[in-house]
Specification:
single chain, alpha/beta, Rossmann fold, N-(1-d-carboxylethyl)-l-norvaline Dehydrogenase, domain 2, 2 domains, 16 helices
Amino acid sequence: MGVAGMPMNPMRVAVIGAGAWGTALADLLAEIGHEATLWVLEDDLCERARESRENEVYLPSISLSPELRFTSDLAEAASAGQDMILSVVPSQFLRSVWERLAPSIHEESLILSATKGVEENTLALPTQIIEENLKARGAANPIACVSGPTFARELAMRMPTAITAASTDERIAQRVQEALSGLCLRVYTATDPVGTQLGGALKNVIALAAGISDGMKLGYNARAALIVRGLAESSRLAVAMGGRADTLAGLAGMGDLVLTCTGDLSRNRTVGLRLGGGEKLDEILSSMTAVAEGVATAPAAVGLGEKFGVELPICDQVNNILFRGKDPNEALGELMARPLKAEGV
């Protein structure tokens, strides 16, 4: 890094997705010296953000950098020869956005995914969806992902934050590390994008379970057990899919899991709290503007467990509560009555 946290090699970066996390990342990139453009889906929100320097819908009360640019034109965001495309689109919309975006991507642009989730129908991870769309037009851009314990509002307030940048090519992860590190953000590198992305996806499902537990007033013992056993589920699945268990012990696994299961800013924990308090899922989701990724990820997690032959009892019960009308007390009873076994099994 250069002086005062500024990058030695400023980049042209397009951030695709203006939710809270995308907005916070774009704002930081602009402040540390990159030429950052934020793509906003909604034309009217884009114009208001440009004028007010605030994303009033997804990150209200945060003043955005005067250097941050805005556009609602997807092709325009990507077609200026960007050095990096940072994709922060919710997993359920990722494929449709990249089908439109891929033809505009320069062949040398570094692609970075910050999406946390799994596509339900295909069971594909975010980088796999992006790679499919790039390959469809004959492109093979360098690609990486970032994940970790990150509440967007805290990063936007410049509170200390650490994340993991992962790619099968360590040099690509190091490029991301150099580009994003600065001010309040510290970036570590890894070579396990499967484990990194899976940790970021499944922690949202486990956070729903922790929220349900808290909503039912089951106590701290129950929450701690859900966190640790949820980590065990995530680790088993990651290894079965070609990832590494030690990745799930780091920022992208345990770090993100603890934050999302315990922090009051967690959307997924909040949904769980309301479910545990007796509210219906449809009512909860209709009252929210932001996306709780765990709701869409739960059935995908169950699908991955079936595909790779891995038991995911917590994810299974969360999915049953969300989509099969199971009473949380019944789900709890079944989890507690499972056959006894050694902890490491």
